[in-house]
Amino acid sequence: xxxxxxxxxxxxTLANGLRVxxxxxxxxxxxxxxxxxxxxxxDVPLAWPGLAHFLEHLLFLGTEAFPxxxxxxxxVQRHGGQVNASTRERTTDFFFEVPATVFDGALQRLADMxxxxxxxxxxxxxxxxxxxxxxxxxxxxxxxxxxxxxLEGLAAGHxxxxxxxxxxxSLPVPQEDFQQGLLGFYQDxxxxxxxxxxxxxxxxxxxxxxxxxxxxxxxxxxxxxPQQPPPALMDGDKYRYQYLDNQHLHHLIACNAPREALxxxxxxxxxxxxxxxLAELKTRGWASAxxxxxLYSFAGQALLDIEFTLGxxxxxxxxxxxxxxxxxxxxxxxxxxxxxxxxxxxxxxxxQQINGALALARHHSENREAPLSEQHCQALKTxxxxxxxxxxxxxxxxxxxxPFLRPQTQEPRPGLIRGQTSAHRGLRTxxxxxxxxxxxxxxxxxxxxxxxxYDEGALYLCWQLDSAxxxxxxxxxxxxxxxxxxxxxxxxxxxxxxxxxxxxxxxxPMPAIVEQLARELTQADANLxxxxxxxxxxQMAIRELLKALxxxxxxxxxxxxxxxxxxxxxxATWQGLGMGLPAACETAIxxxxxxxxxxxxxxxxxxxPINGLYRWHQLDTASTEAALLLLCPAPSQSLADEADWRLxxxxxxxxxxxxxxxxxxxxxxxxxxxxQFNGQTGLLFGVQSPDVALADLLDHIQAFIKQLxxxxxxxxxxxxxxxxxxxxxxxxxxxxxxxxxWQARLAGHGANYLEQLRELIQxxxxxxxxxxxxxLSQAAGGxxxxxxxxxxxxxxxx
Length: 798
Hints:
This protein is an alpha+beta fold. It is built from 25 helices and 21 strands. The chain folds into 4 domains: 8-216, CATH 3.30.830.10; 240-351 and 364-387, Cytochrome Bc1 Complex, Chain A, domain 1 (2-Layer Sandwich); 439-600, Cytochrome Bc1 Complex, Chain A, domain 1 (2-Layer Sandwich), CATH 3.30.830; 614-787, CATH 3.30.830.10.
């Protein structure tokens, strides 16, 4: 395994008070910035709940120098990056990630929107309606209301119990005193002394520092204002309570332990290995999952939430579950943490090694200490001694070391058997030839489209089964956790009879992960019908639609039921694709993959085009708001059509958002972009609205599509070069590149897919796009609408 190239770090404070954290990591393909304001929803005047969130929204509405069509959001999206903001209890974050070539331009826009917000009255009135729509959705969202309910045991006067999102009633925009409060909050907190800028990228520390200094020049100087400390989390001497609903049990603990100590505790509480708390709960049928997290931390206060997803007998065992938790805490308090601290240091180091630019910048904006110190350990010991008094009764075990965190042992070199020497190399026995034949995997290939000189790669494995593939991955929870901690993100998805497993991250642990995967899938062969996990809490409607979209794109009705595989793996066929992997890793993966269940062979993909057809898929959701997704597949799987569709999406993204959300205000969850399913490229439009009917939402989308030719002809440039650069292997994050190459394989494209796609994007003309827009408007590739209501018109096929 190559020696990790740990990023170099520098912290400084500029003359105007701006604190800066710089992270230089040569391996990064992109740059990121996180701007943290030391003020959040708990810092606003009590008269105007939601003011901090409202101001965060207003800052994105453009400035004199950079109007909204050229503001931060549009600029970042135009260059294939990601951008967002978040208002939390005591902080507000603005963050983005972009290619290095446009990092300076994005920083200029962020600085300008912080220093020169318009705060115009008409902007405020429009944006307040967006917050009103979000408030309505929040009030109807089961998960959001669940989060409110679990905090009801806190002291009534603590701001965690309050409402902070903002709505039409809490934000009296036209009132003069509100305007003074808004301006006062901005002037007090949006100045250099209250801000921390974190930058991460492949540039040198000197280059990053120069960028940070230019950024700081735009900001007003000022001091760091102390934030008012909050009241006690709980009344009197109370420090813990339970909250129980039908499927979840929350155990909440108020304490003053450092965040670093609580993160350490949560890591081992969440462990899934035998001998741990979750394993015991599963054995008893009381819980199917456990998730411990720090829900809140500020000024010496912390709130720890230990959530149990209850099993069939769990709802009647809340007191017994609490007793088991206390027993485990007692065991943990009296355990030797030496090995765990070494393991934890490896986990933190590995995450630093694999984190992308945005994750690195966000981590350092939080200013947490690392590694775990003796003071942190002592604080945790003090907390655990407070939580329990009796010695542990259960025979608990600490989790074993993660096998993928350490260098893998090399197997003996192939090609020789006992008694042979190097002089006999090339002389093979019949047994060797037969063994070699068993390891030939015609369905497993490795793409050279990504350079193999990085530490990262990806592996996709897809099985075709003779029945529905739901539930197969239920037994892989421990493997997924260990893989993620070792720097490999591992996910599973089932669509109909296809089961797809993705790995992306450090390539060194991948062969060992594949070996363990083969063992676990083979062991699960006798019991493929796993216990169904508890039904998840319904999410907002548009998210429920997005989860169901892959099955709808494949014309598969999702029943939600688990089915056993009648023949196990005996009739299964699988294929795989590795990307960005060095030759030694490819060889090791082939050796490990030979043990995977099923037959390795190319799986024939049969396209089911819906050219010219209108398909309507209805999904019932818990929300009463109208939500829909319109997926418009390209007319064919040709690269030319894909290039046209990607350029259309590139041009439409910002205008679609501005038209429906900003001008028409028909919804708050408004987006568009490219999606690919089973090798088919489609343009996706999505909207959710609290007060506009489905038919009207669809009419607005269709009206926008009809205006695309005018948008194309009126654009100064089509953006060919900016879009083409996004598909360079040197600029693509590994996970994104892997998904593109996998979809290309499903579509039957060759190894030079990325190069051909870039060339086609660069050469598409205005006329090409006008013709493509006409095909889109006429549903040349068909339209699929997935909505939470009935079809809007007789021309839709149900």
